[in-house]
Design brief:
Elements (H helix, E strand, L loop, with lengths): L1 E4 L4 H10 L8 E5 L6 H5 L3 E4 L5 H7 L5 E4 L8 H15 L3 E7 L10 H14 L3 E6 L3 H5 L2 H7 L2 E3 L11 H13 L7 E4 L7 H12 L5 E3 L2 H10 L4 H15 L9 H6 L6 H9 L1
Parallel strand pairs: 1-2, 1-4, 2-3, 4-5, 5-6, 6-8, 7-9
């Protein structure tokens, strides 16, 4: 039995869709805070159980009988470590044979502010005694694709990543990697640095957007503070704006680059190119 936490999220749903091609639906448990959100998965034969990272009893119930657990990192930045500890402790009580955790690319050396809670979670995993595999995910291409509408509206793509190269991949690529790790023997102790096969600068991203959209969209590079202020002015909450600006700044220092191609090796195919993901987004 394989339990997927955060199963109603974008990554969790994709992991389950990939698992459904590898194992019977009856072996998959979708663990979510609000089970009603995934009635469609229940209709496919997937077991649905309530699990809240802040409720240890719900995690114990959700992990009952589990052989493997995918701990998808919480989206609640600042509260992640306590929530992840609850899930790891529940996995230990359940006696799971493997816990896969979605960490951050090169978490232990990353310049991104996001890395802190991932590093602390990895440390807790190591001392927990639970067998684990680290899926250190790089950037999702979708993170930048979400900025296409405002870029087209305002005639510029803004950021603070400088000349930093970004080796992103489609969210579905990372989901497939998780499904492979969960269904392949002898994964305990492995650390995967997962990133796209190709890399681009944000100027390159803007050039590809210009080519595909038929509009001249230059990249405007800003300081981290200028970019944060621009995002706040556009209506983003200050903590989210700060996180995005910090991540771009980290990218300028190599934080989102990796060229080892461990992701494509794990999934057995090339990662989805930026041009393909952008074409789909524009469509």
């Amino acid at each position: 039995m394989i339990v997927i936490t955060g199963a109603s999220g974008q990554l969790g749903r994709l992991v389950i869709q990939s698992l459904l091609t590898k194992v019977p639906a009856s072996r998959i448990v979708a663990a979510v805070r609000n089970p009603e959100k995934i009635s469609d998965l229940a209709a496919q034969g997937v077991q649905v159980r309530r699990a809240d990272y802040t409720d240890s009893a719900s995690l114990d119930a959700a992990f009952q009988g589990a052989e493997k657990v995918l701990l998808i990192s919480s989206s609640e930045v600042g509260q992640r470590l306590a929530q992840h500890r609850n899930a790891i402790n529940a996995a230990r009580r359940a006696g799971v044979a493997l816990l896969a955790y979605t960490s951050l690319l090169h978490a232990d050396t990353s310049p991104l502010g996001l890395a802190g809670e991932h590093v602390a979670t990895e440390a807790w995993l190591k001392q927990s005694g639970v067998p684990f595999v680290l899926l250190r995910n790089g950037w999702y291409t979708e993170n930048y694709l979400a900025s296409i509408p405002p870029a087209l509206q305002h005639g510029a793509f803004i950021g603070s990543a400088g000349e930093g190269r970004i080796a992103s991949a489609a969210r579905a690529d990372y989901a497939e990697a998780a499904a492979v790790a969960l269904t392949t023997p002898e994964q305990s102790g492995k650390v995967y640095e997962l990133a796209g096969d190709g890399a681009y600068t944000l100027a390159g991203f803007a050039a590809e957007l210009s080519r595909q959209s038929g509009k001249a969209i230059p990249y405007v590079d800003m300081s981290e503070n200028e970019y944060k202020s621009a995002l706040v002015s556009a209506g983003l909450p200050e903590p989210i704006a700060g996180l995005l600006a910090d991540s771009d700044s980290g990218a300028s220092r190599g934080g989102l680059f990796d060229d080892t191609r461990q992701l494509s090796a794990l999934i057995g195919r090339p990662t989805t190119p930026l041009a393909v993901s952008m074409r789909a987004a524009l469509a």
